[in-house]
Amino acid sequence: MMNLAANRKMITIAAILAACALPLVITDEYALRVLNVFFIYSVVALSINLIVGFCGQLDMGRAAFMGLGAYWSAILAVRLHFPFFVAFLTAGIFAGLVGAILGFLCRKSSFDYLTLITIGFNVVCQVVFLNWIPVTNGAMGIPKVPVPEFFGFAFDTNLRFYYLALGFLVVCYVLIERITKSKLGRAFEAIRDDSIAASYSGINIQNFKVLNFAIGSVFTGLAGSLLVHYTQYASPFNYTLDESVYQLQMAILGGLGSLPGSLLGTLILVVAPEISRSFYEYRLVFVGFMMVIMMIYWPNGLLGKAGVGERLIGIMRFRKKEPEEAGR
Amino acid sequence: MIFSTQDLTVKYGQITALRDLSIILESGELTTLLGANGAGKTTLLKTISGLLKPTKGCITYQGVNIEGLQPDRIIKMGIAHCPEGRKALPRQTVYENLKMGAYIRNDSGVEKDIEYFFERFPRLAERRDQLAGHLSGGEQQMLVICRALMSKPKILLLDEPSMGLAPLVVKEVFEIIRQIHEEGTTILLVEQNAKMALKIADKGYILEVGKIVAVDDAQSLLKSKAVQESYLGG
Question: Which chain A residue's Cα is nearest to B75?
Fold first, then answer.
C-alpha cells in the first residue's frame, strides 16, 4: 500500500516535470495554444467531477458558471481597470456565491429536477449575457480583455501563458484532490452513494450539497476568468448549453469519480477536434459515437471503476500477486 | 426514563401511519417493537431520527423535546439509527464506512474505536480495505451496526437487523445485539422475528396498524397466548 502511494507521488512529480519541459519539444504556437486551452478546460472538468462525480448532483449548466466568471473578470478588468489578479480571484468568489445561491434554492430538489434547473439556469445566463447590453455589450461581447499580468510581468505569449495555466491546473488539481480525500469528500461520496445512510451518519445533506455546488463553482469561475484573459474576448456564444454538455462529456469520458480521468477525457475532447479540424462540424457526431461505445465497454469512463485504467492495473497486480490471490 | 414518545401521530399525506403512539425506553434496557408488515415500525424509527415530522404528539429525549429537529442534530444528541435493508455505503471500504459513522465526532479516539471494532469482529478486520458492497449480507449488517455505534450513541435504533439473512447469521447478529445491550447501550429493536427478539429483550411492544395493542415485559409476552398465536406460529 505504501509502495503504491509512493509510486503515485513519483508519477505525479514526473508528470509535472514532463509538462514543464514540454515546451522545449513543442515550440509550435498553435500546439501550445491547444495545450493552454486543455489546461483550463481540465479545471472545468475537475470541477464537474467534484459536483457530478463525487456528490452525484447532475449539473448540466457548468458553462453558465464559466461565463459568470469570465464576464465578471472581463468587466472588472476592461471597464473598471482592476488588476488581473483582483479580477481573477473575485471572479472565483462571484461564481462560488452564485453557485451557493443556486445550490441553496435547489437544495431540496431531487436528482432530475436539479438537472433541469441547471439547464434552465444556463439558458437564462446566456440570455442575460446576450441582452443586458449596457453591462455585457450584448452580442458584440467584450473585446480587448487584458492579458494576465503579475506585478508588471505580462503572460502575453503562448509560452508564458503555458506556465501560468499549468500552475493553475496543478494548484486546482491538488486542492480538489485534497477535498475529495478529506472528511468533506467522504461526506460528498456518502451522499452520492446513499443519502439515507449518509443522513444517519449525522451529515446534513442539504448543507453539504450547497457547499459542494459552491466549491465546484469557484473552480469553474476561476477557469472561466483565466480563459477570457487568455482569449482576450468575452463572447456570449461561448457559454451555451452545448458547451455545458461538451464539458460534462469530458468528465464522463474520463470517468466520474476519477480525477486523472477528467484530465484524460479533457485531453481527448480538446485535442481530437483540433486534429480533425476539417471535420469540426461533425465533432458532436464523433463524440456521440464515442459515448455509445463507452456505454457498452466502459460504462464508468476510461479511468473510472472497471475502466481501461483499472483493468490495466488489475492485470499488472494479478501477475505480481498470483499465489496470494489464488489462495483466497 | 431516557426517552419517550407521547401521543405520536404520523401521516403520509391522508394516510395515518401511526396513531397516538406512546412508548417509553428505560436507560440501559433493550426494548423491542414487534409488528407485521405495514404496522408502522419503520415509520416510528424514521420519525424518531427526524426523517419524518409528526403531525401531533411529542418525542422527549433526556427531558428535551426533539420532534421536528434535523436528522444530523438528533444523531449529535446521541440517537443512532441502523436503517433497514443494510444501508452500508457500497462504494466505500469497510474502514471508510466505520469512519463515516464517526462523522460527528471530533475527538482523537476515532482510530482507536475503529481498531476496537476490528478486534472484536475479526471478519470485518479481514475485509478492512474491501468495498462494503462486496461483503455478505451478515457482514454488512455487522458493519452497519458498528457504524452506528461509532457515533457513541446513548440510544441505538435497530430496524429489522434480521431481514433477509440466513437463520445462522441471524443468530450471530442477535448475539452481537445482546452484547451491545450488556455493555449498557439503550436499544430499540424493531423486528418481525418475534421469538428471537423477545428472547434478548427486556420489554416488548406490539404494534398493529399504527397502534400499540400490547405492552409487557418480554418474558410474559413470550408466554402470552395472544402473542404466541399471532406471531410465534401457535
Answer: A202
